[in-house]
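User: Last request for today: this protein with pyridoxal-5'-phosphate, please.
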Amino acid sequence: MPEPYDPELGGPAEPKPYAPEIGGPSEPKPYAPDELRALDRAHVWHPYGPMPGRQEPLIVESASGVRLRLAEPVEGQRELVDGMSSWWSAVHGYNHPVLNEAARGQLDRMSHVMFGGLTHEPAVRLATRLVEITPEPLQHVFLADSGSVSVEVAVKMCLQYWRSAGRPEKRRLLTWRGGYHGDTWQPMSVCDPDGGMHELWSGALPRQVFADAPPDGFDAEPDPAYVARLRELIAAHADEVAAVIVEPVVQGAGGMRFHSPAYLRVLREACDELDVLLVFDEIATGFGRTGKLFAAGHAGVSPDVMCVGKALTGGYLTMAATLCTSRVAEGISRGEVPVLAHGPTFMGNPLAASIASASVDLLLGQDWEGEVARIGAGLRSGLAPASDLPGVVDVRVLGAIGVVQLDHEVDMAAATRAAVREGVWLRPFRDLVYTMPPYVTGDDDVQRICRAVCAAAREG
Ligand SMILES: *Cc1c(COP(=O)(O)O)cnc(C)c1O
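Assistant: Here's the final one, the structure of the complex with pyridoxal-5'-phosphate:
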């Protein structure tokens, strides 16, 4: 029986009339661009940025389709074609009606509830879908809140698997140079030890085992000498190594390099022989970017543990997932600590999970292979002229990824300006000007992106 309402006890009192002095749900007064820039500079960290910031970020007001709309014209452009898919994630472009609808529908039900002791359809549907579309032995899904966290979870799974198996000394990781696996501690320890942004921590990070970077070239014949060295290294450290972790086929933020899928088969065989687990970090390569739904598909091998993220939610919200085989899950369950001790506050977030399922369905419901191939062909023809530019050492394309490599560090400000002048958003790094456009990018816009990459390579 509900008590009769007694205002003295507190309770659902009449809502106060809205008083602007107190603040409330009014639209905040918009900042002028100059004000926004000053506050941003004073208070807000940006990726790999100093504080206060040195470079002036462009202010984005909205985004739709493949276009970012700026708050004010820059280099004469108010709209930029996005050549970055917001770091591999926005594969369907921005403001997509299907993803918006999924978000709105879920928002009206609940945007979040805790995942401890509770479950819900969005998470179950997404996990089931991921099991269906990833290699068959992967059966169990940990929904993490970012790519880096999904790699932490993958590492924890592997170390705990061996601990449960009575081999706790197997707790190092082996990888090849040139990789990138995220910015939290364990992922940092397997990023490229020289080229990466993490070398300054070399004394403080766990010391992992590094093989040479895989030889360049998706179509190159595997190098037998490299294969032999790789096998020997794994064999030499098998007693202390829990897992080999690599990005399959494309090393992304570590240098945008492509290698032969044959090396993944070598890793699979060596790991099976030597009692080492194999982790594929498909956070950048997943969901079609390289021309296969997952890059492991180029090699026809399946890892024991796999991470996906970035394009998982179509770029709408942060979510990633770690998948593992029943062997790994059951191995952990047999241990003295039979649980996986990991449980982020926002684990399984229903809003992100609903959008992710909608994004995966949207992808698989279209001829994504055709779209990725079409963009790849456009990049190949549009970037060909870059080979003749002074300072360009390599031009390469795989799936819907185009890369121009220079013989010098890019002047980021000059290169960005050159791309913006062409009406395109690019974010070069190190000696690389690269693009991975949304799959919905039309042919004219792909060519525009190519012109911008060439301009950035020329002027950067
Ligand atoms: C981006 C990336 C990560 C890290 O993901 P975050 O969501 O940025 O934490 C890990 N591995 C690879 C291969 C990536 O490209």
